[in-house]
Specification:
The complex is a heterodimer of chains A (211) and B (1012). Chain A is of the alpha+beta class and 211 residues long. Chain A has a single domain, classed as 2-Layer Sandwich (Gyrase A, domain 2), CATH 3.30.1360.120. The radius of gyration of chain A is 18 Å and the shape is globular. Chain A starts with 21 loop residues before the first helix and ends with a strand. In chain A, 50% of the residues are buried. The model of chain A has no long low-confidence stretch (mean pLDDT 96). Helix content of chain B is 22%, strand content 27%. In chain B, strands 8, 9, 12, 13, 14, 15 and 29 form a seven-stranded mixed β-sheet that branches. Chain B has a six-stranded mixed β-sheet with strand order 43-44-45-42-36-46. The longest helix of chain B has 18 residues. Chain B is elongated, with a radius of gyration of 38 Å. The N and C termini of chain B lie far apart (92 Å). The chains are: A alpha+beta (211), B alpha+beta (1012). The interface between A and B is large, with 64 and 64 residues.
């Protein structure tokens, strides 16, 4: 779509950056994982996050061509590319979350815009506003049961699913990219609350934070 | 120290493990496997409490959740205090300390007993009802007094050291109760592959099978229980939750379970692997189907002095003998209306103690258990009942007489039997509490003398919960319920072969509730219906005489079924008595509603982890740590923590808010200040119809806003009232960035989506929240341009980058969009950078800003500065009843826009055109030192008789260091036409402030300062 002001909010210059959890690490600490940690938390900061708005029919071909993956075929679907570094997730009937390695997002946006031409769609950069938090370990599912109202049983939440759900008193996007790994997409301003909640609820599982 | 009532063998306790505990300061011993109640009975403790209203001595009556008397206070330490614990539900642990909740100085010698004996006068039936009615103000006084004298337990005065949490559970089939019906249902559902949760409130699962005399497959029933539990525990699709009470059944099969995880181990949760354990956990279960296998509660008979310690439920006697190896007395009299209760006499006899007699209300009792009792030589008195218990602190005898049930009268001379224990059974009441929570009114069944639950879709009741009592039938009913639930949930039925249970021939029961006495009810010794609330049969009679005919009114009048008891033992008896007095049938009278929670739940479990610093989310901006380190005081704006002001230390003294704000205000007006404005809502709007859409949701015009330009906009609801405002920038022909108030971000986004999705889906436009993506810092003041020039490559020339322009470039090396919008009335640049870079940019600004006097300011200074300029804050100066015209903002209304924008039609109503509407004005106090109170009411004539006509109120009020005067914004009826007139503000303390109505713009009305 023309007549939209694209803007690369990232710079190659050596500028100090702070992930949404930077303050939380300093204030609340980050207990190192031990052999007894039944759940491990890991932030994947500074990834490229784009919110893609548009119908599946409008977007599918361009996404496949530019990102190399098809749009999720069903609601609540999550699809990764071959090396697992790029993903696209269904958020609502015309809303999708694209996560790519940090630095790729602006070029990706431009290529998508070029491929989509005059179609009706929108792309918004959300990379400064959210971060990805991974949970791994045998107690990860029970920790999630303490936190989200959504049913995370494997029969109901298979690999390749993602939902937006209530997390304690905030919301997160919850995804399951692999059998033993869960991802939370957390809004920046709620990141500290979410982090402190996870440390507190995970204490009985000896939660460790990988940095 | 001896457990004089403990049997040498039998029961499910571990005699090799001795546990010591104290009750009311006295040390006792019990065994692992005991409840506090069974251990007290083993030690011959008769009196466990004083009654609530009459202060009568009370003993243990039941063996489970229905216990009304043995409600104790637990806790050795202050922090470990737990009120309202039923001794019958508390597992014994070593070192347990418990006390009675009622009775002062102690339960044996109660100072209140004199008052208690007069209690009928002091707290007559209807006490609550009448004190509530008049005078209402006295209730607090009464309640304090009642609590102090009667006592209902107390909460700890120190912080709870334990942790609690919630677990969100989902299952196909939730089975409540792990007695025969529940175990069978769980097996049937689990074998089909359904996800099953089986929950039971007791220490051990098995329910009635743990103390039954019956054999399953010719083996003791507990062996079958063990096998069933072993199978269930081995299945991945089954979650077993012992010590867990299903306390509330909410809508859509949402059931709250309360799991006591460590309360059987110690007062506070012991460490495990060096880590704190969760003491109690609330399971929030969303179930596909629910099977209620909650069993039945035995009903006591209502006879005179039936509350004297030593009066027990017949079934409880069996439970104490068979499960806990405790015989709570020496000589038993049983009073019953049915066969099943005979097992109490048989169990008692087999324990080696004397059964004095069985008074059976039926003329010709003839069932198998009756035959067994007869064969053992027990004296059976047909057509009789215990009409009165003798004794004060312990039963010393039972007066037994022939009774005429139909005529409700004693039909023969009473015989006094020497005994120390009276067991009674008036039949069984299915436990329908949970089903009642869903709103279904229960149905009375004459054949079982009980209410059965009315069930909503997706719930079934099995076994005792729907009035099926024979063990074999209960098991079969459980299987059927489990199978059906699993099938409905989409699983194929699995087979469950049931154990053989001998079929017992029971004689028919009779309906007996209140037992007649020689004297009329109002003159007979007290016959208790609800032991916990001290409600008597006489109390119910008084209620009906006073005209309370609805059972709901009788309940409130007498307090029957109130509180933690929720009428477990008393309600059906009470209804039956009311029915007899009113000459109606029980179903005509109906039942009251049982409410959650079934038993008391500790607050910790309700709160879970949502406490202390996790009580509510705190939202932080990317510069939060800087604010903390620089001593900011914070203000809550929605969930955001925003710097309120930044007090400095001056000569070793920390500034007051007034001093800090005055300094910050002057810095902005005279040099340069900086505000963290990241919390403003930001919505990215893209699409060819974006401009058209803006024109419809804002009151003003957007057709001609060029890329690179910014405009202020007002938003109305469809009633024409202002609900949010902000600036929107044209980023590209089809691309806009909207800002909203900090608190309104989510509401506005929903509002836009609502109108787009429901009214104007044909418009091609998308909205995405980018609030968190951008960090926003406002650099404002006469020196702002000089500071910016040091850090940006953007051309800051006043003609190249004008007021209400935006430009992109770099600030401190970071890509930025900079907006020349001003909420202070000064030259201002709002810098937006990706939030991950924000702290760097913020710190760079300070590194360069010191020489210009760069001063951080907070929301309070922001409020003063904007109010001096007459800029409104939506939600402070507006309250959902204010139109753009009321605000004097006709300049922001596009009356001639082609499309009917939201609110336009409402603004043509006569009411919104009234000239005497409350309109926004400035107020200048006559006394410059006065800062008017926000919210203060305004009158035109302070000498008018009270009530004075109130004509408006103050919406914002501050001291302005620039004007060196108090000043205010206010809404005043017809105020825009009253410039220069005087209004009055009468205050609560009698002072009357005077103020002049002025323009709301107090400073720089032409806007020259921001345009430089």
């Amino acid at each position: 779509m023309s007549n939209v002001a694209t803007f690369d909010t990232r710079t190659e210059a050596k500028i100090p950056v702070e992930s949404p959890l930077a303050y939380s690490y300093r204030r609340s600490g980050a207990p190192a994982p031990t052999g007894k940690s039944r759940v491990v938390l890991r932030e994947r900061p500074f990834l490229g996050h784009l919110i893609l708005r548009g119908g599946a029919i409008v977007l599918d071909e361009a996404v496949r061509q530019v990102l190399g993956v098809s749009l999720p075929g069903e609601p609540q679907g999550l699809v990764h590319d071959a090396d697992g570094e790029r993903s696209i997730q269904w958020l609502s009937p015309d809303e999708w979350l694209v996560i790519v390695p940090g630095g790729e997002e602006f070029e990706l946006e431009n290529r998508l815009r070029a491929a989509l031409g005059d179609a009706h769609f929108a792309i918004s950069n959300a990379g400064g506003g959210q971060t990805l938090v991974e949970l791994e370990g045998e107690a990860a599912r029970e920790l999630l049961m303490k936190s989200v109202i959504y049913d995370v049983h494997p029969s109901h939440f298979p690999v390749g699913k993602g939902v937006t759900t209530v997390f304690a008193k905030t919301t997160v996007i919850l995804r399951r990219p692999a059998e033993d790994r869960w991802e939370l997409v957390v809004r920046r301003s709620f990141a500290d609350y979410t982090y402190r909640w996870l440390l507190d609820a995970g204490e009985e599982y000896g939660i460790g934070v990988e940095r | 120290m001896s457990q004089l009532n403990r049997l040498a063998r039998g029961g499910r306790i571990d005699r090799s493990r001795k546990l010591s505990f104290t009750f009311n300061g006295k040390r006792y011993q019990g065994h692992a496997g005991d409840t506090l109640a069974s251990a007290l009975l083993a030690n011959g403790v008769d009196i466990v409490n004083r009654s609530f209203k009459y202060s009568r001595p009370r003993g243990i009556v039941a063996a489970g959740a229905e216990e009304p008397n043995a409600v104790v206070q637990l806790g050795k330490t202050e922090a470990g205090q737990v009120p309202n614990v039923r001794a019958t539900q508390q597992a014994l642990f070593d070192g347990l300390e418990a006390r009675s909740t009622n009775g002062w100085p102690n339960v044996q010698r109660d100072m209140m007993s004199l008052v208690g004996k007069l209690g009928g006068k002091f707290m007559p039936p209807g006490f609550y009802y009448k004190t509530f009615m008049a005078p209402a103000s006295m209730w607090m006084t009464y309640e304090k007094y009642i609590r102090k004298s009667a006592g209902l337990g107390r909460s700890p005065m120190e912080s709870d050291p334990d942790i609690y949490d919630h677990l969100h559970q989902h299952c196909d089939v939730l089975v409540v109760g792990a007695g025969p019906a529940g175990l069978a249902a769980a097996l049937a559902a689990a074998r089909s592959g359904a996800r099953v949760i089986l929950v039971d409130e007791q220490e051990e699962m098995g329910g009635s099978l743990l103390d039954t005399r019956e054999l399953l497959d010719d083996k003791p029933a507990d062996q079958w229980v063990a096998e069933a539990l072993k199978e269930l525990a081995g299945l991945d699709n089954v979650t077993l939750l012992p010590r867990t009470t299903a306390n509330g059944y909410h809508d859509h099969h949402f059931v709250t379970l309360h799991e006591r995880r460590t309360e059987h181990l110690a007062e506070t949760a012991p460490l495990k692997d060096g880590r704190r354990q969760v003491r109690s956990r609330m399971h929030r279960v969303r179930a596909g189907r629910v099977v209620l296998a909650t069993g039945a509660h035995e009903r006591p008979l209502v006879y005179a002095n039936n509350d004297v310690p030593g009066n027990l439920l017949a079934g409880a006697v069996s439970t104490y003998v068979r499960r806990y190896g405790v015989v709570p007395g020496k000589r038993l009299v049983l009073s019953t209306s049915n066969d099943h209760a005979y097992r109490a006499a048989l169990d008692w006899l087999e324990s080696g103690h004397e059964v004095v007699a069985i008074a059976d209300a039926r003329a010709n009792p003839d069932g198998e258990l009756v035959e067994q009792a007869r064969a053992r030589g027990i004296r059976i008195l047909p057509g009789s009942a215990v009409i009165e218990a003798k004794g004060e602190n312990r039963v010393s005898g039972a007066r037994v007489a022939k009774v005429d049930l139909d005529g409700f009268r004693v039909a023969g001379a009473a015989e006094t039997l020497d005994c120390d224990t009276i067991a009674s059974s008036g039949g069984y009441s299915p436990v329908i509490h949970l089903a009642s929570h869903t709103g279904g009114r229960p149905t009375w069944r004459d054949d079982i003398f009980g209410f059965v639950p009315t069930l909503v879709k997706g719930v079934s009741a099995a076994g005792g919960a729907q009035g099926i009592y024979a063990t074999g039938e209960v098991l079969a009913d459980g299987v059927e319920a489990g199978r059906q639930a699993a099938t409905e949930a989409g699983f194929s039925a699995a087979s469950v072969s049931l154990p053989e249970v001998a079929v017992r021939r029971d004689g028919a029961a009779v309906g007996l509730f209140q037992v007649p006495h020689e004297k009329p009810t109002l003159r007979a010794p007290k016959q208790f219906v609800d032991l916990q609330n001290d409600v008597t049969a006489a109390g119910i009679e008084v209620a009906t005489r006073e005209g309370f005919e609805s059972i709901e009114h009788v309940k409130r009048y007498t307090a029957m079924g109130f509180g933690t008891d929720q009428g477990k033992l008393g309600n059906i008896n009470g209804m039956a008595i009311a029915a007899r007095l009113l000459g109606r049938s029980i179903p005509e009278v109906g039942t009251t509603v049982f409410r959650p929670n079934y038993t008391p739940v500790t607050f910790g479990a309700i709160v879970g982890r949502h406490c202390r610093e996790l009580f509510d989310p705190e939202r932080y901006t990317a510069m939060h740590q800087w604010h903390v380190e620089h001593g900011a005081e914070f203000e809550d704006v929605g969930q955001w923590k925003r710097p309120w002001y930044f007090p400095r230390k001056v000569n070793g003294k920390t500034e007051t808010m007034h001093e800090a704000v005055a300094r910050e205000c002057l810095a902005v007006r005279e040099a340069v200040g900086i505000l963290d404005a990241s919390t403003l809502g930001k919505i990215d709007i893209q699409g060819p119809d974006a401009r058209e859409f803006l024109g419809r949701v804002y009151t003003n015009k957007w057709a001609k806003l060029a890329p690179g330009r910014v405009r202020y906009g007002l938003m109305c609801k469809d009633d024409g009232m202002v609900f949010d405002d902000g600036t929107t920038s044209c980023l590209g022909e089809n691309h806009f960035l909207m800002t909203t108030t900090s608190g309104g971000a989510a509401t506005v986004l929903e509002w836009l989506e609502l109108w787009h999705q429901t009214e104007w889906p044909e418009l091609d436009v998308y909205f995405t929240s980018v609030t968190d993506h951008w960090a926003t810092m406002t650099v404002t003041g006469p020196e702002a341009r000089k500071l910016m020039a040091e850090l940006t490559d953007i051309d800051l020339d006043k003609d190249a980058f004008k007021f209400m322009d935006w430009r992109e470039g770099s600030v401190a090396g970071v890509p930025a969009r900079v907006f020349r919008i001003s909420f202070t009335g000064e030259l201002a640049y709002e810098i937006n950078v990706q939030a991950n870079y924000a702290l760097h940019v913020w710190e760079k600004l300070f590194a360069h800003g010191e020489k210009y006097g760069l001063t951080p300011y907070g929301t309070e200074t922001m409020h003063v500065l904007r109010a001096e300029k007459g800029f409104i804050i939506a939600g402070q100066d507006t309250d959902g009843s204010v139109t753009p015209e009321d605000l004097g903002m006709q300049w922001a209304v596009g009356y001639d826009k082609p499309f009917s924008w939201i609110g336009q039609r409402a603004l043509t109503r006569p009411d919104t055109a009234r000239t005497d509407r409350k309109q926004l004005v400035g107020l200048k106090p006559r006394d410059a030192k006065v800062v008017l109170e926000e919210g203060a009411q305004i009158v035109f004539d302070p000498n008018h008789a009270i009530p004075m006509p109130m004509v408006g109120h103050v919406t914002s009020s501050y001291y302005s260091p620039t004007l060196d005067s108090g000043f205010a914004l206010a809404v005043v009826k017809g105020g825009q036409q009253k410039m220069g007139e005087t209004v009055y503000l009468p205050m609560a303390d009698g002072q009357v402030h005077e103020a002049e109505i002025v323009s709301p713009i107090f400073l720089d009305p032409k806007g020259e300062r921001q345009n430089v």
